[in-house]
Amino acid sequence: MVPQPDYYSSLLFLYPLPCFLPVQSLGFSFIFGRRKRIAYEDIVKATEDFDIKYCIGVGGYCSVYRAGLPSGKTFSSFPNLVVLLLSGCGLNGSIPHQIGTLTNLTYLGLSLNDLTGELPLSLDNLTQLEYLSLYSNRLHGSVLPEIGKMKNLIFLDLGNNHLSGVVPSLLGHLTKLKTLYLDGNQINGSIPFEIRHLENLRLILLNNNNLTGAIPSSLGSLTNLTSLRFGRNQISGFIPPEIRKMKSLIILELSYNHLSGVIPSSLGNLINLTYLSLRYNHIRGFIPPKIGKMKSLMRLALSYNHLNGVIPSSAGNLTHLTSLTLQGNQISGFIPTKKGNLEKLSNVDMSNNLLSGHIPFHLGNLKEFGYFNLSYNNLCGAIPFSIWTSIDLSHNQFETQSRAPSEPLDYNKDSCSEIKGLSHCKKRHQIMLIIVVSISTTLLLLAVVLGFLFHKRRINKNQPVETTKVKCDTPNSA
């Protein structure tokens, strides 16, 4: 009997892989691959029937750089295997069909490799599986409906592959599932209604696909959800007001879709939300005042929609807000003068709107300003001097201020009288210079001509009378 090692009683780390090396421990078998070296003595202690001939490339402290299965060994040789983690090992080729013989497997991690081909149908035999990660490979084909048979599954990550087809409705059978990552694929079709059955779901990432259709209102039943990311798809329709029931939600990301309608005022119920992104959609209407109830909000991105109306004064209640982007809308009215406690605000972009009035001076007291863009509005008045960090106030109607830097105030009304160096002022100065030079040259030429004529007249007066008569009579004789 091989003695159990002190440290590697349950895990074996090899560097790098492929490395299929069985490890016996407490009646279980583990095959681990991680980018970490392990001493040869530890492998001997942790492995039955181990021979150094199965190790390739030893050096230094007899560190094993590579190991392979003994001749004749296949997956079926390890019926008690419960953990197979070979992430980041440089594996290529397809996932072998024989993997379905590991019926006791609970953890299967093959992410960050170069695996190709389709998901093997034999995966449906792994009914004890709790953790399945095939993230970041080059797998193609569809998401197998048979995955719905893995009813013990808690974690499923098939992200960043080339998977296509639809999201199988049978995934609704995975009632223990807490994490579902299908992002970064080519999945199409609509989000299945059956997803409402995943009541234990905490994280769902379907972003960066080709999903269409509407967001099902049944998502409101996922009250344990903390992160919902559906961005960069082709999802249409309204934002379902049932989302208000997801009171555990921390991240809601629906950007780069074709969503329309208005922002439901019921989103104000998501008091734990820290990140809300609805940018690049077709949302209209006004920003609901109830957004001020999201007091945990740190990032609010509503840019490039069709929003109108005014910025609600309740936005001053968002005391944890660090980023506010509203550019590319039709928002009008004044920037709210309510001071609030926006001391953490560092990124503001309200450019390309219809804002008017002046910049509230309390914004000049913010300590964390990094980027500030109010260009292409109708703002006017004086400017708080303390906001000159990565600022763009061009194309407004601000008053001149000699202490202001040049570029941020380009194309403002009367901004050339006291501020030197503005690009449009430089053009104006060039035009004025051309005009002055032209007038001066014309006057100089005129003076020369007049001087010449005056001098000629004096000469004519000193000539004999006869000559003058002859000259004056010449036209009459003709």
Describe the structure.
- The protein is an alpha/beta fold.
- 12% of the residues lie in helices and 19% in strands.
- The termini are far apart.
- The relative contact order is 0.04.
Topology overview:
Blueprint: E1 23-25, E2 28-32, H1 40-46, E3 58-59, E4 63-64, E5 81-85, E6 92-94, E7 107-109, E8 114-116, E9 131-133, E10 140-142, E11 155-157, E12 162-164, E13 179-181, E14 188-189, E15 203-205, E16 210-211, E17 227-229, E18 236-237, E19 251-253, E20 258-259, E21 275-277, E22 284-285, E23 299-301, E24 306-307, E25 323-325, E26 332-333, E27 347-349, E28 354-357, E29 371-373, E30 378-381, E31 391-392, E32 397-398, H2 423-461, H3 465-477
Parallel strand pairs: 2-5, 5-7, 6-8, 7-9, 9-11, 10-12, 11-13, 13-15, 14-16, 15-17, 17-19, 18-20, 19-21, 21-23, 22-24, 23-25, 25-27, 26-28, 27-29, 28-30, 29-31, 30-32
Antiparallel strand pairs: 1-2, 3-4
Main sheet strand line-up: 1-2-5-7-9-11-13-15-17-19-21-23-25-27-29-31
- What would the principal axes of the Cα set say about the shape? elongated
Number of helices: 3
N-end to C-end Cα span: 143 Å
